[in-house]
Amino acid sequence: MPKKIIGAICCCLFMSLPGAEAQDVKKLVEVSGTAGISYEGYGLSRRPSGWLGYSPRKPWNQVRFNFTPTFKFGKNFSLPFNFNFAAIPTNFAGPYAGLAKQNFGQFITNPMNNFGLNPKYKWAELQLGTQYLKYSELSTGDIGVFGAGFDLRPGVYRIKFFTGISQQGVNFFAGPPSVTGAYKRQNWMFQLGAEKEGKYLVALNFAKGKDVASSSAPPPLTVRPQEGFVMSLVGDVYFKKGWYVKTEGSRSTFTKDITTPYNPLIDDFKPFIRARTSTVTDYAVQATMGKKSANFDIGLTTKYLGAGFQTTGYPYLQPDRLDYTVNTRFNAWKKKINVVASVGQRVNNVSNTALKAKQFIGNLNWYTQFNDHWSLNVNYNNFGFQSAGGINPYGIKNVSNDLGVNPTFTWMNTKMMHLLSMSYNYSKYDERDVITGLTTSNNTHMVLLTYVPTYLTKDLSPDFSAMYFYNDVPAAKISLFTLSAGLAMPAAKNKLRLRGQLQYTLGKLNSFSSNNNLIASCNVDVKIGKKLTWTSFMSTNYFKYGNEITPNNANYLESNVRTGFQYRFEPRKGK
Amino acid sequence: MKKTFLLILINLFAVNLFAQLKIDLVMSSTPPAQLSEWGNRREVLTLIVTSQPGLNIDYKIKAEIKTTDGTVIGTSDLATVPVFRNSSSATIFTATDVLPLDKMIFTGKYKNSLQRTGKLPSDNYSLCVQLVRPIDYTPASEVKCKTFYLASTQLPILMKPYNEEVLDAKQAQTAITFRWTALLPRTTTPVSYRVQVFEVLENQTPVQALRSNMPLLDQEVKATTQYIWRPQISFIWIQPGDLDGDGTFDPVGKMKKSETGAENNKTANPKYPGKPFIWTVQTLDDHGLPVTQTDGSGEARSEPVVFFVKDRAKVKDEKN
Question: Angle at CA A311, nearest 5°, toward A307 and A315?
């Protein structure tokens, strides 16, 4: 069924292209954006026969379509399309994980596919089909919903509403291959607010998602039908000289299993949601204040997510934490020094004092352009994580320290410009064993040397690099040595652009014999017409193990091809 | 003398009645922290009631949750819990009957914790169960208690690459190091961490890519919180595409706001400083199942993190 639909849509879309070019229509309609079709093929050959130690990581065949033009009718009306879809489902995580054959409803709402249409007249926008709407950081934003709604912005006012389905019911199947299964989820969201760009924003958000318990049979084994409602208030104010304050407070009421009985003992939020025994209600707050300017930024951010805070709009949000971060950026020495730094702490499991976990986060990136030839980039990252041991004799303590130094030297003559860049990174990762209390250190050294010559009189862009990587832990020592070369060049009077790369890596684990890896890839982009481009990417990856695995000297050859046509709609200048 | 005889008679009657209703309580020592989840898993709690054949007795189940010092923090509301009648064979009850959360009264901070999180604070507790008569709540069986430990599972936090870190393509082609924190609390049985990396394709949001694509990396590791990935991927295609259609690849700074959709539709606005990838860690128990199924997406996947891969040498070259 979906294949027929794809075929029909494609025919319609591509048949419509010449129509958009008709002279008379052009006077009334202006079209911009792109449309295209691409194919991706993947191959994997493993030796010896029957060895399955390396798994395929792409679909064997995939066809993707995109149709994203914007039709403009006069000054006030525009009709943007956002159609992106693929022929074969490849869902691995989330509600459609493992789904091989999809029905029409599943195809339409599969996160792989977008079918969005947003006709807009002056300040009124109609939202149809798939929409990824971000109302705020603590209400909804990560989930695509297929449905209908509007976004009205009369003057300073903001009135938004959208309702639809974010996932269809998927039956559980034990497999192989297994299908996790999912419940059909209905969503709606509403925003009422006022905004003056660069001055202020006040908005009240409501978002709800509810599963249909009877929508899958057999139902998923590991997920229960859920219902969640969130209400948030956003308030942003921008002052003079770049100062700003942004805040959001949110309350979520989330039922983890809608088959559990109603519970009058728990606070609910009628008429939006009624409490059951598996309902939790909690709060989240986020606040940022700071200053932005051309040469100096500073910001203080704090975020608290209560242990029971959960929304359907951000399904992977990790609650029960308190973050506070100070970040800054400044330029100095006539903008030759650029520094970006942040320092902060995250406290996890705030609600549970016995096993509270603290994480320190510090980042620094310091770039200096000494003169026309020399520049230096230094970065330092520190992450520390600490928690009580619980039933274990010692607490958890992980500390990660990374230091990178990257000097670059450039010089040129009348024919060539040269860039020589060296990177050295040292990484130390200490981890305490919760049983013995002993700390193991994991040290990594990495050196990279890159040379990029640029011909001023020719259209050749080669680059060369050599890299050494060494990781040392008590039980394993890994060393990798990589040589890489690339070349980019135009051809056929700039109608053809070629890029290629060759990379060889020699790897070694402990005293085992070395493994070898060769990667070759190339891009070929062809300008067929003024608006039509044909792009292709081909890559092959050969890996041969030493005797570190059984069977010894196992190897695989992986190949990947991507090719596609892209048509660009271009509005006529002066129209 | 009469009084003594009467007391002996009452005691004999009571002992006889207890002997008629016998209970066995079987309970996991580490049940799920989410109390509402207990009813979905038979292995968490089972109460077996047996009686002498031919005896018809009505009873209610009285359950109490206590802390280690004996303080009762939650108890059945005996006025509202259902009445059961013994059958000729053994009657088996699960957590849904023994601990009906809509008929349990919790106190103080425990009530607050349960309402906010659906969990009790991490600690050692005991559950005591007794059958009582419906009218006067006098004992109809002996008391059976089991101790258990509750700990709220905290999924790993992704440490490296950190959120929105930009990795150099030349380095990333050889190796990318992933680090995360361990599952809290450490369990007695080993857990597995599945490190997963997804490519974010053009016109996809990162979370959309995670929910749509096959992972480029899906590696299960045990007893360690670091993995060094050799991507074996050529990153030469990481440069931004030909946005203006002039046949050349545009520098990052040229990337413009897409005109293809609504300005608040995130798929139509990919302003990335390099080729985006999203990674996460899924934590599985020794049966290969997600360690927590009631929090977040139910997949026990840690909050994903986006990182970018960019050919820095090329960008520097373009700047010059």
Answer: 95
